[in-house]
Every structure is written in structure tokens, then in C-alpha cells.
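User
Take a look at the entry that follows and flag anything odd:
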Amino acid sequence: MNMKESVFDLVKRMTSREDVAEICARAVMNGAGEEGSRGGGDVCCRLDDSAAALLGEVPQVVAAVTADTDPDSVVAPFALCGNLLYTRRSWRYEQIVRRRVREMAAAKWMQGIVVPAEGEFAALRAADQLPAVPRLLATRFSILTGGPGTGKTFTLGKAVKLLRERNPEAMVALAAPTGKAAARINESLEDLKRQGLLDGVQPATTLHALLKPRPDFVTFRHDRQNPLPLDWLVVDEASMIDLPLMAKLLDALPETCALTLIGDAHQLASVEQGRVFGDLCGMFAQNVARLTISSRFTPGGTIDRLARAVNSGDEGSFAEVKDILGEGQTAFFRDIGRDASTPDSWGDFRAQVLAGFGAFASSTTPEEALESLNRFRILCALRKGTYGVEALNRYAESVLGKECPRPVMITQNDRMLDVHNGDVGVVMPRKNLQDPQYLCLPTLKNGVRRIRLELLPETEPAFAATIHKSQGSEYGDVAIVLPPKGESPLLTREILYTGITRTKGTVRIYAGEASIEACCRRSVERVTGLA
């Protein structure tokens, strides 16, 4: 019996009503994010008036609630807020986030800070970074959002320095949803640490490591009864945080602790339930500092204009995207809609793979291979099928040959080995089949650490990666591959924007016009009660 059948059976036994049981089972499937649900990330289910009225007849199963209802007061398995139907658990998580963030956003912290525009703060951009620093410190909840290369980490470093000048004993922690994201924060902060801006601040860690999971891997040692000993928690790549994890994080913060979320509001939402970061950016606009000037792309240049056109959501955005791609400057479109049977038929795709991975393929040491690996990457919306990661990794391996080093991505955390889902290293070709093979991973100071392959958890090739997995990364050039017909629900504004903004140089999009149009017209939609 699957989940939907189990819920249907339970509610029917409680109410003797098949109509009620069907509605409740559908709500669970939406919130569970199972295949076939509406996008696989809804927090609740939106009902029409007649269905909502029907559920009002069974209070033993569905509790009527409002936005002010205590999250711990609901005992029925479902909650109905207006026309939004939740499972009790999802309702409780959303209420914890709503109530706690509302309290923190209204709580004053370090008011009246004036950031000098000279000395060590002179490097802050007057247009956006300079006013962002006092906003991050003004209340106990703040958001710092901006696209790639806008200087979010640099701005944060200046805010940390200002805080510690006022309160040298302040306990500050940095965290991220994934090990890969935490490692990237630490890499980005190296310069700031050398400048002494982060003295006394521990290296970033994952949210799970910070909260300390219990053996059930669902609850954490740090919670409302055992809060974290912190004065300020900063979480990067916050768009990846799903609703349950955000609720548990907020539950573990003491009342005197401030929280700053950092991320790009235009990037993909979390894989699991909710779009918490995007919802909070809209709900608490007065607590949001926005950085708008990117150093990764030339302002007004091709990539900058392309990303803005994709994001606009205007009626004419598809036409504008087509025009920009047609300029043939640093962004290119290859129409694979007519003959998309194999990658060899996608125009210059084979040539781009050979050229993009050329330096990597000719590397003779792990150091050379790691240095050249991020010069090029294939990014996909899908995992399976002709246009997916699995097929294109096999294609790249066949084109580049057996003597090419292999990029390998870790797909499962292993605390003993200190490797994380999303870490990428290289495996060098063996001269002797009897020689052991190692995954060579980069270290913070441009070194290499080696782990024998047989000790590793789950891995996969990494010539190609999903756009989801690429969040937070940057590459010299990228090739984006999308299914040409535009029918996949994964083809959204957010996925195309995220893929485009991974490049520091050029982007080539191998797709059909229908898939580009689908991305421009479709946005990630998740039913939540936060927005």
C-alpha cells in the first residue's frame, strides 16, 4: 500500500467519508513531494470553496486554523486555513517559521549604525553594499540577496567586522545547507580572514552539523529546549533550505540570537518542501538588503542582459532572449529541435566538449586537472534521457577517451571521510592496472587530498551536472542542454537563469525554441501559506 492509499484508508476509517478521504490523501501527496504531485514541493493543497466546506464537517480529522493559531495546539491530522489544506506537520512547520521570523524581524538589534565611507570600508559600493551593512545589523532577522558576483560575502565580512568591533565577545557562526556550499563559503572567506575581518569566527559548517542530528536523523540535539549558544547565525545559499529544516533551525535559536539569510532570490527553490527564502524575501521586504551590481558579468553586457531578460517574466521576455542569443557575442543558441537523436547531431556540441575539456584532458597531474576542470561544464535540467546528465556523462567519456582524467562527484555525505554530497574531484588514469586509484579533492590552500576509490560513498561522473547541483558554482564557460520540446515541468525561468549565471565567460544553449520559450514563460510554483 503506497502513501496515498494509506492516508485514504485511515481517513475513511475515521470519518466513513470517501470524499473527505480523497481530498486529504491528495493533500498529503502534494506536501510529500512524491512523483506526480504538483511540482513536488507544495506545502499545502489549495481547495475550492465546496471542498473546503466539506472538510469543515469533520473536525476530528481537519482542524480549522488561522495564521495566529499556536503551532502546537493542533491535534487533528490535518489543518485547514481558509482554502489551504495542510498535514498537521506541514502546518506546524510553517507556523513556526511565520511566527518566529515575524518576532525576529520586529526585534531591534544594533540600531543607528553609521558605516564610514572611508578607511577599510571605502571598498564598499556606495550604491548597494554600503547601505546593506547597517541593514544586516539593525534587526534580529535580515536577508542579503543578490545575483552571482554582487559581493554578498564581501559585504557580510564588513558587517561581521563592525559587529565584533562593538561586541568582541559575540558568538558568530556561519553555515550552509550542504557540505559543498559550506566549503565554498570557506573558500570565499579566505581573503577576509587574512585581512582579520573574521577573527574569532569558526569555519562554516553544514546546518545539520551545526544542529547535531539525533540517531533518528529527523530531530536535532539543538532545539527549543537546548538552543545554540550563538549571538548571530549567518546562513549562505539559503534558497536551498526547505520548510522543515528552516523550522527546526529557527526553533534552535535563542531569543537573543540574530539570523541573516544570504542567497539569490531568483535561483531555484529547495528540492524538498516549500520556497522559504523566496517567500521571506517578499514578506519581510523591509529587512532585505539587495545587491544589484555584479562583477562576474559586465554591466549591460550579453550575459547580464540575458539573465535579466529571462528573469523579467514580461510578455516580451522570450523575444528579448531570442534577440540576445542571436547576437552571437558571449551567449549562443543551438537549435537541436529538428534532429536531436544524438549529441553528435547538435551542431558544434562535440567540438565544444573537446575544446572545453581540452586542457583538463591533457592534464598529467591532479593539480593540473583540478585547476583546469572548472573552465568548462555541461549543465542539464534533467538527469535521465537523451538530454540528461547520465547520457551526457557517458558521451563526454566516449569523446575524450580513456586516457582523460575523470571528474567525479560525491553524491552522499560521509562524515568519517569528511566528504559531502556535491564535492567534485578527479581520478587520474592508471599507468598500471594493479595500481590503486584515488579521488583527488582540492583543499582550501590549493593542495590535494587523496582518498582511495573503494572507501568512497556513492559517486557519479561530473563532466555534466544538473543545474540544481551547480548552484553556487562558477565555470569559465558552460553548455546548457535542455529537452527541445519544452514539455518538462522542470523547464522554468529559475532553471535557465541559474544555468546562465554559472558562467564567467560564454554560455551555449542546446535546446529547442519551445524549451527556451517554456523557461521564459513558466516559473516555479509552489503552494504555500507564507507568501
Summary: Residues 392 and 405 are 16 Å apart (CA to CA). The radius of gyration is 24 Å. The first helix runs from residue 3 to 15. The chain has a mean pLDDT of 90.
